[in-house]
């Protein structure tokens, strides 16, 4: 199930995308009040945007733009929105993304060809270990994609190793859709309950939210720990709510493939110029085929390296390597993208929290961890639980929380070199 355009020559792919780009420019000029203002402000003639190189004439779209002008990005009336999802941002306010029927069909197509890229077939059964609720796009996308592919799916949801193994042993899925560090918890549970993982029937895992590979595509520490205990194939997939598109590894496992019918990619340096071949830069995307909320030159904040050589799988599309790093202290935590200001805003909802510091670090398996140290004269188990529940409600995850003395927090917040208190300490 390789779309013909993904097997085309680079020149044919470029020509194809330029036709789609012109359609997109006309569409947003007709329907997006935000982009109409942008074109007027910068005196851009839409008819002059005819090539991929012409994208450079357009300003970049940022997460802050989405937060400050959310409704102005919508190109359809709300009566046409079938599904609403949200994503957190640098200012702490969620961005609402709406999807029409057409957008849901596009989302299903994206995931179906992404799963097929990883070798999943109609006869397979996938176990979904991520949530489908809480306005989370990914879980819904996976379900729709598996359905379109014609494979089976078991919607277990996040956590609960006992329930996961009950489903694995009962329904015999062949693949898991999972945050890779959770695989270690499944392994630990299996070892504690005399479950032989090698006889589970699991062939592989579609891994989200955490990196599996180093920049040379060799397995990183996390993946090595998994493979040492469970001999299954691990496939990375990278996506974001804003771009409604996934970059998933094929059988060669040499980076996530671009779907050129769904997305245009640019890799830009700090001056917003294209990087040289093989250099790292920020991924900037332009969505194709999105009806409700298309985006032009959206800055993802993720630093990646693009690989453009033809792949042995038969695709000639650009591949994205593992995320090198995140700009503005963006954190990938348990499959969710978080920004420290969003944590700040949630902590400020509790008057009992007198002071705090947010520490970001890599754990022993190389993935991001967040530890929030708080000072409170009225600390209690109930307060700690309320804070955790609040985080789960607003961000879908709950960081580690540690109670400290006010003196310790103040010493951490006062930088020797800075003139302002330090709230976020990035130890990565």
Write the layout of secondary structure elements.
Layout: H1 4-7, H2 10-31, H3 33-41, H4 63-68, E1 83-87, E2 95-99, H5 101-117, E3 125-128, H6 137-149, E4 152-155, H7 161-171, E5 175-178, H8 180-192, E6 204-207, H9 221-229, E7 233-240, E8 245-249, E9 256-257, E10 263-268, E11 280-287, E12 298-307, E13 319-320, E14 325-326, E15 331-333, E16 336-338, H10 340-347, E17 355-362, E18 368-375, H11 381-395, E19 400-403, H12 406-413, E20 424-426
Helix pairs in contact: 2-3, 5-6, 7-8, 8-9
Return the average pLDDT rounded to an integer. 90
What is the number of E strands?
A: 20
Described by its quaternary structure, the protein is single chain
Low-confidence stretches: none
Task: Report on this structure.
- This protein is α/β, with parallel strands linked by helices.
- The protein is built from twelve helices and 20 strands.
- The strands form four sheets. Strands 3, 4, 5, 6, 7, 8, 9, 10, 11, 12, 13 and 14 form a twelve-stranded mixed sheet that branches. Strands 19-18-17-20 form a four-stranded mixed sheet, with helices on both faces. It has a two-stranded antiparallel ribbon with strand order 1-2.
List keywords for this structure.
32% helix; 428 residues; four-stranded mixed sheet; alpha/beta; 20 strands; twelve-stranded mixed sheet
Structure described in brief:
With 428 residues, the protein is an alpha/beta fold.
């Amino acid at each position: 199930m390789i779309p013909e355009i993904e097997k085309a020559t680079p020149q044919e792919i470029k020509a194809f995308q330029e036709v789609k780009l012109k359609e997109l420019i006309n569409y947003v000029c007709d329907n997006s009040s935000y982009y109409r203002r942008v074109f007027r402000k910068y005196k851009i003639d839409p008819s002059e945007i005819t090539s991929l190189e012409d994208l450079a004439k357009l300003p970049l779209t940022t997460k802050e733009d989405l937060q400050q002008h959310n409704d102005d990005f919508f190109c359809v009336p709300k009566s046409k929105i079938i599904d609403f999802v949200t994503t957190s941002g640098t200012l702490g306010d969620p961005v609402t993304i709406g999807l029409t029927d057409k957008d849901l069909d596009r989302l299903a197509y994206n995931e179906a060809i992404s799963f097929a890229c990883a070798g999943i077939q109609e006869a397979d059964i996938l176990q979904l270990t991520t949530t489908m609720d809480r306005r989370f796009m990914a879980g819904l996308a996976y379900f729709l994609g598996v359905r379109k592919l014609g494979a089976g799916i078991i919607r277990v949801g996040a956590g609960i190793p006992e329930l996961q193994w009950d489903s694995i042993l009962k329904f015999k899925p062949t693949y898991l859709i999972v945050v890779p560090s959770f695989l270690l918890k499944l392994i630990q549970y299996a070892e504690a309950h005399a479950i032989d993982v090698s006889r589970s029937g699991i062939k592989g895992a579609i891994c989200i939210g955490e990196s599996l590979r180093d920049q040379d595509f060799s397995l990183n520490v996390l993946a090595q720990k998994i493979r040492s205990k469970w001999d299954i194939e691990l496939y990375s997939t990278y996506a974001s709510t804003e771009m409604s598109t996934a970059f998933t590894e094929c059988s060669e496992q040499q980076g996530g493939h671009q779907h050129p019918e769904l997305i245009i990619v640019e890799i830009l340096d700090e001056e917003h110029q294209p990087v040289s071949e093989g250099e790292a830069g920020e991924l900037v995307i332009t969505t194709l085929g999105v009806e409700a909320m298309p985006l032009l030159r959206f800055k993802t904040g993720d630093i990646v390296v693009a690989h453009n050589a033809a792949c042995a799988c038969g695709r000639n599309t650009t591949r994205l390597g593992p995320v090198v790093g995140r700009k503005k202290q963006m954190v990938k935590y348990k499959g969710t993208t978080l920004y420290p200001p969003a944590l700040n805003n949630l902590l400020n909802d509790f008057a009992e929290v007198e002071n705090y510091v947010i520490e970001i670090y890599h754990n022993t398996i190389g993935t991001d961890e967040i530890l929030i140290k708080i000072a409170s004269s009225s600390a209690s188990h109930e307060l700690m639980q309320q804070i955790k529940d609040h985080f789960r409600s607003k961000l879908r995850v709950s960081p580690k929380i540690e109670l400290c003395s006010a003196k310790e927090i103040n010493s951490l917040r006062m930088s020797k070199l800075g003139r302002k208190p330090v709230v976020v300490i990035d130890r990565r």
